[in-house]
DNA sequence: CGATTTATTGAAGAAACTCAACTCGAGTGG
DNA sequence: CCACTCGAGTTGAGTTTCTTCAATAAATCG
């Protein structure tokens, strides 16, 4: 059981911390909470007094549209802070859902605000984190607005695989992703039926497997090509482990 | 000719500044530049060393998709800072275009970074500004992913009218918007032909007029309803002028 | 005024949607 | 251990929305 501060892992994945910075993080009071799968963590209209880091689990950000249908706007993986925005934007403008059982580390806005005043470098890193979020949103708009079904789904798989990989949670082109086809439909703006057909096509092309909450990329280059995927928008930290490509071609 | 600092107007629209804050802003070196209509201001892949405030004109943020088609991701009106993100996110992930002749006020990242360190309240306001940008991106994803053509276009008109209004640039439900139907098509992810038909339908329903770079809303409530529009996501400052609704019903 | 955008129209076709039924697999409880 | 249930995935068929192509009208600009 590791008792280190949940925020440490997040910062240390990208930064080399000074002693003072590390101390400031360790001193930041956090409160761990667990949310069951398919429960709302935050709702549109909420005015949270604290933000949280996703320690473990899979969450999503979504909005409900006219016909009652839901649009998923982002998936959140461990070390994400899906609600950092509420620190300086009182009113929540979308919902956040736990897709699996999630462990959350809450920090009060009061403490976080002071932390940002005192730890300028780390504050800028957090700001940057919210900017990357916005960049991902932009790419999703392109995805939904411009790409047809097959490319759209392929693009989503590319993003998820790379992000999981960056967290060290993908091995040999395989990672756990507890998503149903219905979830993928809501994320791509496609119907469930069409989502199913698109996934079948991706399988037929031998680009991926996706079943029982597990994604495997068989042909990374092929997937990237059908997705028109360029990873820049994710602003991922440079890969330090020399593990070559995310998945070998025709693995 | 007003010679006051371009950033002052932006801050003062939402905040009551202290003398020290006002001084800090006035001391911030800016450089005014003009960009002609249909010129790129920034490109994907750029690494700007300065950010800018849009002083006058209309700009947009966009990305080019697989088929060479362009998706517009946001429209930028005066007092916006379309590229504030580059302050803490080196690599530009989208293009910024001037849609009309634009006047830009550039501030170097070095100066802006120091400004943010020293002026904590104003720094948070700028951070908040980027968070609102992200919120708008989210709503656009919903727009493109969930709403059908008519509602999608109506939604865009609602947003633009409210934002122009918040700037005091709309009178009697009318505002100048130098956009072509092709621009609107790129912003909504619809084809030009379909965009044209959708706009005709909005006219037929007597909700709006849109011609020669001028938008008029004839029936705000009706437009809001067909758009499924809720303004929360814009996080607009509370309306101080008691000018009732943006446009009277069946004006 | 002629040239060049911008807007509009018609018609055929593609992509994706809805509805409805059916299969499959993983529990659960008798 | 088997029948049952329930969620997830799959299939077929008809329909809608939107696209593309191509041509025409109207507005704008030098």
Automatic annotation (TrEMBL), chains A, B:
Sequence ranges assigned to domain HTH crp-type in this UniProt record: 147-221
Protein name stated in the entry: Crp/Fnr family transcriptional regulator
Keywords: DNA-binding, Transcription, Transcription regulation
Pfam families per record: cNMP_binding (PF00027), HTH_Crp_2 (PF13545)
SUPFAM superfamilies reported for this sequence: cAMP-binding domain-like (SSF51206), Winged helix' DNA-binding domain (SSF46785)
Domain of life: Bacteria
